[in-house]
Design brief:
The complex is a heterodimer. Chain A is of the alpha/beta class. Chain A contains 12 helices and 8 strands. An 8-stranded mixed β-sheet of chain A has the order 1-2-4-3-5-6-7-8, with helices on both faces. In chain A, helix 6 crosses helix 12 and helix 7 crosses helix 8. By secondary structure, chain B is mainly α. Chain B is elongated, with a radius of gyration of 19 Å. The chains are: A alpha/beta, B mainly alpha. Chains A and B meet through helix 1 and helix 5 of A and helix 1, helix 4, helix 5 and helix 6 of B.
């Protein structure tokens, strides 16, 4: 009897724990999804929709219903993009104009970075700008392999070294493990960039989604620890505001490939306590943003994180930071990696590359 | 006693999500791992048709060998666990990945193969580690624990490619 009662208590304990934060296991069950908001997002542009249509064909299941071990096996927006490319007769192989090397920056197997370099790097030429790039995936899913398009394109178009940082993922390693890894990787870049042919006086940070957050948070870390400050920050649809009542979290609640229940799902797995969601490293709008370099924020219209970017831009302006924020119409979360087949993505790529180019050029004057 | 047990489960809020770990059931684990092996073997054979790079050739031959072996090991462990799993069949995404490899000419096929291998080995490690941690069938759990370091060695090799 006593053992049964104990088991009953244990089960209740486990289930209420599942409501807030998960156990540190990839098998930990997802949080309850609750009632779906009825919002129907506006129609995506035709070329954007063609990519989204590949997701069910490739067997994608709703991430918010899965434990991490299965969520990590789902086809990604990058997979869907390559499927469209193949059907159009385009090559899906990585662009050979850029070469890569994987190098460790820490002792954990996930603490490594992929260093992208233009293949035609002139021997003994002038040192190249360095971009530290952080991938997305809500700190739970995805890796540097999924987010290959943007760093490869930036290396090619800007003739730059792009260091794409892998980091430990949650729930196995919870917040702030990802922020700690992002900062450690930056210190490692500062110590090694010169040996790769990089110019440590021309550094920019970039990132998408959870990685857009890391780009800003790592710049704050650099400011507070008197590390070399980047010349520019490119934050593409960053996680920046923990409020769940922002307009985009309602109007794009059922958007694809990111919906509002997925944001709750990520928080369930990456946070240790509910208070983590209010930590200024996650809720960037509440951080001290003074003294940051100029910032470019790229958002998608059909994305629950659109308001995160808009409110972050406002908070940065109030803190005296020079910031430009643009929302691209008819496109969704993850569109930044779709420049090969989505017009809006190509436009956003060119806009972001132009902003980085200008930032690096200022340094030459 | 039984009554109390069920009462606890039913009164637990949100009974729709399992209150216990959602570790893959043994049959699902065997299917997912077997499918991953099948994809490794199939994609490696596609690159072996064209590659001129001895490093890629050596790696692909090793993949065919190692993943054929891990399929046999899993089959034996499944039998010891009295688990019947459907024979592996490529998932829609894996069918697409193979089609992409076949569409590439020799030179870029090597690059596409290495990129695919990096992604798929990360996923394989995720599956094996999760089952080795909390899998419910002891022989399969032991097999997963033995596969983990093999996949880690493959990942270490891929980091040099």
């Amino acid at each position: 009897m006593t053992s049964t009662r104990l088991l009953a208590l244990l089960l209740i304990g486990t289930s209420s724990a599942a409501l807030a934060q998960s156990r540190p296991s990839p098998n930990a069950p997802p949080p309850p999804v609750g009632a779906r908001l009825p919002a129907q997002p506006p129609v995506a542009a035709t070329d954007m929709q063609a990519v989204l249509d590949q997701m069910p064909r490739l067997g994608a299941k709703p991430i918010e219903m899965l434990p991490p071990v299965k969520a990590r096996l789902q086809p990604t927006a990058a997979d869907a993009t390559r499927a469209v490319m193949r059907m159009k007769g385009m090559s899906t192989a990585p662009d050979p104009a850029v070469v890569t090397q994987d190098l460790p920056y820490g002792s954990d197997p996930k603490q490594y970075a992929r260093v992208y370099r233009p293949a035609a790097m002139p021997a003994g030429g002038t040192p190249m700008p360095v971009i530290v790039y952080y991938h997305g995936g809500g700190w739970v899913i995805a890796d540097v392999n999924v987010y290959d398009a943007a760093p490869r394109l930036m290396a090619k178009q800007l003739n730059a070294i792009v260091v794409s940082v892998e980091y430990r993922s949650a729930p196995e390693a919870k917040f702030p493990a990802q922020h700690d890894d992002a900062a450690a990787a930056y210190r490692w870049v500062l110590a090694n960039a010169q040996s790769w042919g990089g110019d440590v006086n021309k550094i920019a940070f970039a990132g998408e989604s959870a990685g857009g957050n890391l780009a800003v948070a790592t710049a704050i870390h650099a400011r507070d620890n008197r590390l070399t400050m980047p010349l520019h920050i490119l934050a593409v649809y960053p996680i920046a505001n923990s409020s769940m009542t922002l307009p985009s979290k309602r109007d794009s609640a059922n958007a694809k490939p990111l919906n509002t229940p997925m944001l709750k799902w990520f928080g369930h797995y990456f946070s240790k306590t509910p208070a983590d969601m209010r930590d200024p490293r996650i809720n960037l709008v509440s951080a001290n943003l003074r003294g940051l370099p100029p910032v470019t924020i790229v958002n998608a219209q059909l994305d629950p994180l659109r308001s995160d970017g808009e409110t972050l831009a406002a908070a940065m302006r109030s803190a005296g930071v020079r910031v430009e924020q643009r929302t691209f119409e008819g496109v969704t979360h993850e569109f930044f990696g779709m420049g090969a087949v989505v017009r809006g993505a190509y436009d956003a790529n060119m806009y972001a590359i132009g902003r980085l180019q200008a930032a690096f050029a200022t340094r030459n004057r | 006693m039984k009554k109390l047990f069920f009462a606890a489960v039913l009164t637990a809020p949100f009974a729709s999500t399992s209150v216990l770990a959602q570790v893959m059931p043994p049959a699902e684990y065997v299917t997912v791992a077997g499918t991953s092996d099948l994809y490794e073997i199939t994609s490696s054979r596609v690159v072996l048709e064209t590659t001129k790079d001895p490093k890629v050739r050596g790696f692909a031959e090793m993949m065919v060998d190692h993943h054929t072996r891990s399929t046999a090991d899993l089959k034996a462990a499944a039998a010891r666990s009295r688990v019947r799993a459907a024979p592996p069949k490529l998932m829609p995404l894996q069918v697409e990945l193979i089609a992409q490899l076949k569409a590439e000419p020799a030179a870029t096929r090597d690059l596409a193969y290495i990129a695919q291998q990096k992604a798929s080995h990360g996923q394989a490690l995720n599956v094996q580690k999760a089952y080795a941690m909390e899998g419910t069938a002891p022989p399969l759990r032991a097999a997963a624990a033995q596969i983990v370091p093999v996949v880690e060695r493959h990942i270490a090799m891929l980091m040099t490619m």
